[in-house]
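Why do we care about 3D structure at all? Because function follows from shape, and shape follows, mostly, from sequence. That is the central idea of this module. The next example makes it concrete: a single protein chain, its amino acid sequence, and then its structure expressed as tokens.
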Amino acid sequence: MKAKIFDNLLFKILALLMAVLLWVVVVNIDDAVSYKKISGVKVNLINTDVLTSQDQTIRVEEGTDTVNLTVYARSSVLKSLKAEDFSATADVKKDLLYDNMVKIGVSYVGSLPSSSIQKIEQDRSNVLVSIEKQVTEQFKVTAKYTGEPSDGLVLGSLVPEQSLVEITGPKSVVEKIKQVVAEVDITGITGTAVRSCSLKLQNSDGDAIDGTYLDYVGKNEDFEVTATTLSTKLVGISFDVSQAAPEGYGLLSISYKPETVTIAGEKTALTAISNLEIPAEALNPEGKTGSVQNTVDISQYLPTGIQIPKEDDKSIVVTMEIQELETVDYAFAPAQINYDNLPDGLTVDEDESHTLVIPIQGMQHDLATLSMDAVEVHADLSSYRKAGTYTVPVAVTLPDGFSCPSDLTVDVKLEKAD
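And the structure:
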């Protein structure tokens, strides 16, 4: 009986061992060790302070800052692995080789036990680096914008929180920076609004510069720009033409485009403006004659606090025709002269007084239509108390667009009244 029981026990133990063996075989078939390729694991430099403490900086050469892995583990483990489960580091203090490469170390940092990863292979052993002098320079911040404010408003000003920023980094990279731009979106703003952005670094061609190895304020979305809006108004434009033509010439015609312009400012300031008066010196500063075309920047003649929002609207093209003036002599008989303040007891002897010839200057077509009735000539006789012949200054009043000498005189004979 005991032998029979013992034989059954051995049989049971043998069966158990066979089941375990079968389970191991099945497991190794269903969950066999395999591999998975994981690309683009970022390589991080560590212990770089050994260089920065010596005013040096280190940066990874482009194209060598990632490593591709081949990971060996059971199939059940591999299916959940991703790039974030692995850490790739290059220890500058411990593994710097020949001053231009650092050994890459890869480790598993995921949630599974590290023992579940059987082997990690990497497609590169080293990261290539560049070590150079670290410099700090200041750059002006240029504020720019995208979008437009609410209807009826224009952008008045863009003010960055700092007009200058210090940028620290590798000398070869810092030297390439030619412009620092703070660009914000102002779509739909009214009044004053503060917008945040990250600073953009550009080279001389306007291309972006990688700021990975640079240190500066505004590298992330933490640089503020204050945008202010202004009201707008359409107003007329007029020019003072009094100095448009040089001496001896006259303005025959003038035209300019556009004749109106949109200005911007505080609403209260715009209320009082309906027309922009452009001063005389703006039209023809060089004294040109003939057919003249000048471009006038009217923005320099705006009232304080007023601006022209569109750059193209600041320039007005003025076309003028400037001709040489002609002179025509007009003869005024003594009877056509107004004698003012004639003393009592005296009279003008018109037969013995001289004719006054007035050389009147003007445009040809104006002179052709000038009537002598439109010209007033006055002789002031208040200083002459006795009979006799006197040379008397005369005052001539002419219509606009005409001129004559200011020192004209006429000989007048005074005699005692009967």
